[in-house]
Each structure stands twice: as C-alpha cells, then as structure tokens.
User: What shape does this take?
Amino acid sequence: MIHSEENVSPIPQGQYIPASRFEDLIFTSGMTPRRKGILIQTGKVSSEEPLHIYKKAVRLAVSNALNAAHNIINEDEKLNQILALNVYVNAQESFQAHSDLADFASEYLYEQLGQNGIGSRAAIGVASLPGNAPIEIQITAACTKY
Assistant: This one.
C-alpha cells in the first residue's frame, strides 16, 4: 500500500463507520480533510482564490476515503477498482470549477492505483458541509483476492 498520510481509518464524527462492505463492493462514508479528527482547512471554496490552495485538503479527504476502504478488506485482498468518486464542494454561489477540484482527487487515486483508480465521478456543489469543511469525498470500490 503506497497511499496515506498515516494509513489509519479516519475518526468518525458521529454514529457511522468509515466504510461498509457487501461482498466485493466497498462504500466509504463521506470523508472531509481531517487529520487525527481535526479539519486542516475550513470555509467555502471561493472563485476568487487559486484552486491550488485547496489541493492539500482534497488529497487528504480522498486519502482518508482510500484508507477507510483499505482498512475494511482482508489481508489476502486488494482494492481492484475505484467504481465511483463523489466530490462534494462547499462552494460559494459563484464558484464553477467543481470538476477542476475533483481532478485533484482523481489524480491522487491514479497515483495510488494507476488506471484502476479512475472510475465514474460526480463533482457536486453544496451549500455547506460538516464542520464547514471545504470538501467531502466518498468512494465506491471493488476488491478481489490476490
């Protein structure tokens, strides 16, 4: 496993689990850019700011999701494919570059899993996110035995 900040499951912020599984499908909860339970960035994504200031937050959120997925599989299994990536952006009304922010997450998944890190994707602007996080990411993945 190449990925992760610390390769630990994110700390749930409520009554849920970081990931659930049905057969070979893994569904993560929405992950925000938290390190050890603390958001590293807050606030609405602004069209007046350069996108790169959100890159670290996006990469941490998707790393948290990938860690949650990895931590639910067995030792004799591997993540085989990202099936879906949902990127929720806490955006100001004028913001229109949702897909560009989602590209940071797709790039991270590609770095970790190669072409298998690329699946379908939705980039969605929302009015708010938990803790005023700028981004929340959820993935659906498939796993197989080695």
Remarks:
- The chain is about 20% helix and 30% strand.
- The chain has a mean pLDDT of 93.
- Residues 55-70 form the longest helix (16 residues).
